[in-house]
Amino acid sequence: MPNIGDRLEEARKRQGISIREAAEATKVRSDFLMNFENNHFDFDLPEVYKRGFLKIYGRYLKLDEDKLMTDYNAVLLGASKVVSKRENKELFGRMDLPDEPKTLGSTESAPPFGEHSAKVAKTARIKERPSSGHDGPADRMEQKTDSSLYWKIGLIVAGTFVLVGLLAVLVNLLISPSAPDEPTDTATTPPAASTNVTPSGTAAGADLAQTGTVTISTSGPAYVLVRQENDNKELFKGNMAAGQSETLTRTGTVRVVSSAIQNVTVEINGKTYKSNQTGTRQTYYGMDGPVTPLQNP
Predict the structure, then answer these.
(1) For 223, which of 28, 118, 259, 265 could close a Cys bridge (C-beta 3.0–4.6 Å)?
(2) How far apart are CA 234 and CA 238, in angstroms?
(3) How many whole angstroms separate alpha carbon 57 and alpha carbon 131?
(4) Which spans are transmembrane here (predicted)?
(5) CA–CA distance from 48 to each of 11, 128, 129 (Å)?
């Protein structure tokens, strides 16, 4: 008849569970579980804990708890009788007291020699067995867990660096926003003649003393600079939106510079003028319309 340890070991192996896995699942130390499977119950632990751990282990292996505890009580009773007899023998000196007859099949009967030898051999194999061989699946699981943990840490660090870089770029853009480049007078070469040159071909310096108005309107967004040529005075400077117009009082010829000259329309004396060029350009307008700029000698 199998004893308690054999039944525990057989149930555990039948379910493919290692000692380490059982200890983690039951929260009972693995050396206590080994003592239970080796049928050793005289290790240093209070009796209430031994009973509790044995019930937990039996329940985990799906064994009959009541029968398991009944057999355990029988083992304790047998052990107490053996201790009592030993004390009686020591009390009466060399007097040999007859042993009580044991019932066949009783849990108090000593195991046969073969079973005892098998237990000793099994205990020796357990002590010599390397931990990696006994708990191989659990160790492999721990290695996989460590590898996944390293991967997660690496991804977190990389993501942190990427996030810091993006934040630095965003802060840089917010602190120093780039303004649109202003076209300057020297940035472009003035055209030889505007789209609609007056038939007379009036020179830019022919109407320096005359006063009048000029209206600048835009069909699309553009940066516009209007400068009076006789005294280099700025009449208008800024960004204009689509549909915006500005009427300016001027004396003599004016120069109109724009970052999108194709969007700029100039109105003089009820007539409108628009360049057929694109991009950043400058044009000159006298009192009657576009003029050719004066050339320096």
Answers:
(1) 259
(2) 11
(3) 21
(4) 149-175
(5) 24, 31, 31
